[in-house]
Amino acid sequence: AVPKRDAAFNQLAEYARKHSNDDNSITTTFGTPVPEKDSSLTVGYHGPVLLQDWFSLDELAHFSRERIPERVVHARGAGAFGYFEVTHDITKYTAATVFAQIGKKTPVGVRFSQVAGELGYADTVRDIRGFALKFYTEDGIWDITGNNQPVFFVRDFVMFPSLIHVMKRNPKTHIRLDYDMFWDFLTLRPETTHTTMIFFSDRGIPDSFRKQHGYGVNTYAFVNAQGKFNYCKFHWLSNQGIGTLTSAEAQKIAGIDPDFHIRDLYNAIANGNFPSWNFYIQIMTPEQAAKSEFDPFDDTKVWPHGQYPLIPVGKIVLNRNPENYFAEVEQIGFDPAHLIPGIEPSPDRMLQGRLFAYGDTQRHRLGPNHIQLPVNCPFHVHNYDRDGRFAIHNQGGAPNYHPNTFNGPVNDKRAQALTPQIPLQGVANRIDSVNEDNFTQARVLYQRVMKPDEKTRLVQNIVSFLVPTTSALRERAIDLFAHVDESLAQRIRDSLKATAIEQHVNL
Ligand code: HEM
């Protein structure tokens, strides 16, 4: 069925209703009125165009520069704005201003995304979804650049570029997905197993951005007003419930309405059906972390809720669509290094790499002053950065060196008091974590969490990705799943036997 005319279809009609055509002259890029926009300036009807037709050429030149690099991952997505409200007191864990008192509201920006597809890809493909939060606090920007599932494929950031390469296009055929690249990498790096199980589960294709949970994935830390330090994880659970699509449903929708998720979010908010999520934390003391039987800084693992219960904190409500997609969604930049006093990084190796990667890519994608875009930082900033392309807020005549005796900005005492003192020691080394415990939590997920019908769909989904690869890689993948559960491996084997596989190359 063709999508019905909805709020998204009516966007232009709605614009026209709110904006009259009076006093609405076209202007040049420098603001002067344009007499005639419908023809270029020519010498007679068939004459050549004059170089002095400056504003036609200016428009052409601007058009040719409309595209900026898309995000190297998470290129495709949708954004919305709203607020975070504190419902429970957690000041005993953190002095972060955003949690200062019950009832406090902080504006938020949110972007939902798909990891591997490009900007113009279809929404309903099997993939992890990004779910990034930006809190506009009085202490500046705090970002949680999260996902829609609690764990990630790899635990050391040096693995990330290769992981993404196998999820993107083959460098020669330019085809995605290349199933041989995909299974080759996953089976050589068994730490991917836990997330791979979720990728192939029902949660691998949400039916709406609104009907999915969000997770910080990495481990962070909190510092309270007394300087006490604890590790923490962030979770935000959907009040719309969980909605998923089967592979068959998703494939059909991808053909009919590739913008299915973007449309759904836009319409929900335009119709006043504001989506919301309840926000929780998990807390682990440094003493518990030191004794933990699993690595609390390994993002391929969850912290079991029985041991580390979800502590309610607040809620997130999205009640405003972007006024302009490019300005507020394409140009928004989330960064795990954007932390505020009271919230700190942990030694999580993935997080440590991410602290560098996002600002770095945004300096390339958006420019060195991307942070001055209104959606990224609406605050008055006081520091010693100056100049660079598109420096809008260049801080007037304030001193541009530190220290100085001319009333330039100084160290912040409160932020200083909240900086944790962390004793560290060890031997610098490169330690490959490939043989960490890679299967226990994946086994719990399969044996104790998944219901029988979910297991059946898991097997079908895995098999559909195994059919196009080589028999050698199929065997390696079956062996990987046998480490999770022998009966899972057997079901995959049986299902593959029942599927006609055309093997073009004898591998
Ligand atoms: C986006 C790198 C791991 C969630 C991005 C971007 C880069 C990147 C370069 C594009 C940012 C932009 O252009 O604005 C990395 C690296 C990782 C890593 C190097 C590993 C070390 C993760 C993990 C998560 C995650 C573990 C899950 C928590 C996201 C999300 C976005 C994103 C949600 C999209 C943000 C947005 O909506 O603009 N990542 N990433 N990434 N990443 Fe990661």
Automatic annotation (TrEMBL):
GO terms for molecular function: catalase activity; heme binding; metal ion binding. Keywords: Heme, Hydrogen peroxide, Iron, Metal-binding, Oxidoreductase, Peroxidase. InterPro entries: Catalase, Catalase_AS, Catalase_clade1/3, Catalase_core, Catalase_haem_BS, Catalase_immune_responsive, Catalase_sf. The active site is at residues 74, 147. Catalyzes the degradation of hydrogen peroxide (H(2)O(2)) generated by peroxisomal oxidases to water and oxygen, thereby protecting cells from the toxic effects of hydrogen peroxide. It catalyses: 2 H2O2 = O2 + 2 H2O. PANTHER family: CATALASE. It comes from the Eukaryota. Its cofactor is heme. This is Catalase.
